[in-house]
Every structure is written in structure tokens, then in C-alpha cells.
Amino acid sequence: MLYHLHHHRYVSTQQTSLNIPFLSFLFNCENQNSYKKLLLIHIRSISIIISIFLNLTFASGGFGSYFLGMSKQVSADFIEANDDLNTKDPHLGWMILFLFPVSFVGLFSVVPLRKIMILGHKLTYPSGTATAHLINSFHPPQGANSFIWSFFQWFYSGGSDCGFNSFPTFGLQAYKNRFYFDFSATYVGVGMLCPYLINISLLLGSIISWGILWPYISTKKGQWYDSNLEENSLLGLNGYKQQIPPFSDQPLYESTAMTFDDRRRTDVFLKDEIPSSILSGGYILLEISSIITIPNIFPQLKPHHIFFAYLIAPLLAFCNAYGCGLTDWSLASSYGKMAIFIFGLSVGKEHGGVLAGLAACGIMMSIVSTASDFMQDFKTGYLTLASPRSMFISQAIGTAMGCVIAPTVFWLFYKAFPLGVENSEYPAPYAEVYRGIALLGVNGISSLPKNCLRFCFGFFLFAMVINGVREMAIYKKWLFCEYVPSAMGMAVPFYLGSYFTIDMCVGSVILLVCERKDKQ
Question: CB within 8 A of 141, min separation 6: which ones?
């Protein structure tokens, strides 16, 4: 199970460019006794080393989405905004120059929040917790059962919609609405780590969206949006899915009782503080360097655009890190799409708004994604008694390496294969999706489907009401205060579907049965 959770963290996001899952496999295969000796001496160093190497996977992502969406070969599939102002072919030099300032910002913005997230709200961060257990136990032989299950599933996989991971558990109609159990040990394990309330909130959100809302909007096809649109068109049902989810956050109240291990972890976690002057100075320095370099790379983005992006980035980084701590899902791509709309609309199509929106998406996604992943690693460091300062330095080293290695690998693929070309070996469908979103953004709010904004505001108010009721219930100590659902948890399955929420609820059931059994 730990192998699945550890592997899931670094391969499930769209931004992943390099993966090193073999580290987990090595922990499975090597002799356990020899690792136990190493564990007693170097466990803190191991977590730091793994942080350096695994940081390569996210420090420089987005090559198959917004980077490739800028290219002329992807823009050739669209009938508008194909001019030089709205296109820019990838090149190794400017990609490295672009990635260095934006990839480091997330590190400096999230460090001051680590006490609030991990000690204050006691957020779970399931992937970070699983990685810590992996390091602490080095995967005992019993964990091989999870690997064997994946090996068994492999024999029945024949495509994207074939095998156990696409089994119509509740019937074909439910499967079309993404209600099915996909036999994923990863999500079952995440469900066992997440609080019961979060898993129930995820399931409730999937029922509201995929069970009620999307089927209802589908009946309005031809009235609210054109009936001849493709299924993935952002002018149709997919546009509602992109815009409606009620993103919000609320405090998570946990018990303040601490064990001896918790006190020891807290003492280590609070040592080796990173001076606030270094954090604030580093952030300001990166902002200044970005204001100078990025407009030279993308003249469509002016210095005041970069300043505004860096002004709101810490707030969005906090929201994403908080949501990731609750549900183990990073919504960095959603914040990136929001940046496409904001900056693309402000620049305008005639002045290169498509390219400006994609570049702003890269800035926002890099900052927000790095922040949530770094907080996951802080959780790992907290549980393995690693020094926060050492974790920060290791993250910086890994980020610097990723900013060079990842674009170099992408550049080799880009020059060797026809990336982003339809019906080719590497069609890169997300590149077209992100460019399509950028085209929507420059055309303004009027390009969205009918009643889309009404749904957006309605669900925003719905999330505010839920959070208000929760806060009031906790303050007044009402009996149902522990049963008010999480708006953040409900928002995640609106776009992703219901399959993983069912897996996570199965994990909660397994955990509940085990707890009841232990009590007996």
C-alpha cells in the first residue's frame, strides 16, 4: 500500500516531467535487515536525499500542457490567434530562464505556513505521511501484497477503458457518469489516511456533481449550449465542469492531545528555523528578477502583470497547500486556468493575450504546485525528524536541478518527435486543451456557456454558507459540528469524477472495521 501511495504522489499530476518510482521499488527488494541498520543512523539524511531527487519531478513541469500549447504546431489546429503575437515555439534557453525564478517562489512563499498547516490544523498530507512511513519502516515484506495486486491487474489491462480500473461496478449508466470502483490500492490507502469527514465530503460532492448537476445540464443541450459541440469543448458541458467547483477552505479542528513522539517531532520541527528575513528577501529578489526577465521572454506580459501575479500567488499557494493536506489532490492546474482567464482577458487577443495567458498559467502553476508539494515534504520531514532547514536546502537543490534537467529532456523529445501533432505518437492532448482555454479567456466572459457564471456564484455562496455553519457550530459547540461537510472536499470530484471517492470511502470502511476490531 505504501508503494502505491508513494508512487501516486509523483506520477498523478499533469505537470510531472521526470519520475523516480524505482526508489520505492528498491526499498521493497533490498534486504530489510541491512536497511534497518542504515535507518538507525541515517534516517534523517535519507528523507533529505529523497527530497532532493524526487523534487526533480515537479520543479519544472507543464511541458505537455501550457509550454507545448504555445507552439505553432499546436496553434495550427485552431482557426484563430495563429499569429506570432500568440505563438512561441519552445527553446531550451528561454525555458530554463523562465523556470528558474518561478519555480523557487513556491518554496519561499509556503515555508512560513508550515507551522499553521502541520502543527496548527494538523493536516494529514496522505502522500507525505505515506512517504514518511516508507522511510521509517522501509517497506516490510507484508507490503508486497499491494505490489502483487498491481501485477495481477496488469494482466487484465488492455487500454484506457479496459481492465479492473474501468470495471462498471454499479452498471453501465453509472459508469458513464464516472460512478464505479476502480480497484485502486492507491486511493483506498489515501482514504485510510484521510479523515472520515473528508471522504464523506468527497462522496457528497461527487453525488451532487456527477449524480445530479451534470446530468441535469446535459438535458439542456441545444438550449444552454450548442448541441453540435464536441464532448470536450469548453463551450459546452466541459465549460461548466471547469468553472463551477466551489473552491473554498476552512479550518480543520483536531484533538490537541500529543503523545511523546508528537512532542519530539514538534521540538525537532521547530528547531533550525529559517530566518524570516531570508524568506522575505528571497521572495522579493525572485519577484524583481521575474519582473525583469519574463517580460523579455514574453513581451505580451508587462511588469505590472508579473507584480500582480506574485501578489496573489502566496494566497493561492496557501489554498492549494491546504486542500492538498485535506484530500491529497493538488488543484494547481485549476489555479493555472484561472490565471489564463485573468491575464489573457486583460491583455486581449489582438495584443497576444493567448500567449500571455499561457505564460501566466505557467507562473501560477509552478508557484502553487511547488508550494503544495513542498508542504507534503515538510510533513515527511516532520514524521521522520528531519531538519526543516535541511529540507529547505534539499528542495532548493532539487528545484535547481529540475529547472535544467527537465527542460533538457523535453527539448530532446521536442526535437526528435512531432510532439503535439494529432494522430502522432505523442499527440499531447493537454496542450490543445490549455490553448483552447486561453482562446476562451481572451474572448471574455461572454464566451462561457449560458448560466455558467450563475452556477459559479451560486456554488461560491454555497461554500461560504457551509463554512459559516461549520464555524458557528464549532463555536457554539452544537452536536452536529463534527458532521458538517468540507467545501474543499466537495469541490475536488466536481471535475475529476466519482471513481476515486468510492475508493477512498472503501478505505474509510476498512479503517473503521480495523479500529472496531482492535477495540474488541
Answer: 32
Q: Is the dihedral of CA 412, 418, 421, 422 positive or negative?
A: negative
Residue type at 512 in one-letter notation: L
Q: What gap in Å lies between CA 104 and CA 228, rounded to an integer?
A: 44
**Contact of 143 with 28, CB cutoff 8 Å:** yes
| Residue 261: CB atoms within 10 Å | 10
Q: What is the C-alpha to C-alpha distance for residues 209 and 11, in angstroms, rounded to an integer? A: 26
Q: Where are the domains of the chain?
A: 2-155+258-450, 196-251+451-520
Segment 51-97, tens digit of pLDDT: 544 454 444 467 888 888 888 888 888 878 788 888 898 899 999 99
Name the nearest CA neighbour of 370 among 61, 67, 91: 61
Contact present, 451 and 106 (Cβ < 8 Å): no
Q: pTM for the whole thing? A: 0.69
Angstrom distance (rounded) from CA 101 to CA 84: 25
Mean pLDDT of the chain: 74
The pLDDT of residue 136: 62
pLDDT in tens, 221-263: 888 877 777 766 667 777 777 666 555 444 333 334 445 556 6
* Most distant CA atoms of the chain, gap in Å: 70
473-492: average pLDDT: 76
Residues in Cβ contact with 116 at an 8 Å cutoff, skipping those fewer than 6 apart: none
Q: Which of 363, 404, 393 is nearest to 278 (CA)?
A: 393
Q: How far apart are the first and last CA of the chain?
A: 25
Rounded-to-integer distance, Cα 209 and Cα 245, Å: 9
Is residue 464 helix, strand or coil? helix
Kindly report, residue by residue over 265-305, the tens digit of the pLDDT.
677 667 767 788 888 888 899 999 999 999 999 999 999 99
218/269 Cα distance (integer angstroms): 50
Alpha helices in 271-419 (DSSP H): 276-297, 303-327, 332-347, 353-383, 388-416
Distances (CA, A) of 36 to 27, 52, 140: 11, 22, 10
- Measure the CA–CA gap between 61 and 117, rounded to whole angstroms: 25
CA angle 10, 109, 92 (to 5 degrees): 55
